[in-house]
Amino acid sequence: MKLVALVGSLNPESKTAKGLNVAAEAARKAGAEVLVWNLRERPLPIYDPSAERDENTLAFIQLMDEADGFLIGSPEYHNGPSGALKNALDFVGYNQFNGKPVGLVASAGGAIATNTLVQLATILRSLHGYVIPHTGSMSYADNFNADGTFENPKMQERFEKVGTDVVALTKALRG
Description:
alpha/beta; Rossmann fold; FMN_Rdtase-like_dom; 42% helix; 6-stranded parallel beta sheet; NAD(P)H-dependent oxidoreductase; Flavoprotein-like_sf
């Protein structure tokens, strides 16, 4: 089983990337192969439906095609997902997400990133993805240990559950 972890933050010290990595590690421990696409490291051009696709964009689309499920993370900017993440999702559609599990995590400059998680769930449901009900939301006050785990064990548990739930649903859907 192959999962794609899509990091929608461009911040080099991204809490979103750290939180998504917690979910990805839990998914790996549950038996999934997890491939990470970090939009900071592998940016995509601004979406233009009439433009020819460059090599990086074609690789992104192919990776998304091959995935059995997804872990997607975004920072919350102005009560919504990052523009970089929304742009990346514009390159793919229901051909990639139809009937596949999706786990969501987000980071907020305030207490919680509810609006971002709701908007991402709406987008991914419209692409026919199965968004798991359990999500991970971290605030500016949540911190990480040097080993990449959350300082707060409850947050660690919550984000791990996002990863393991995507693996469990993927297995269930595959029979």
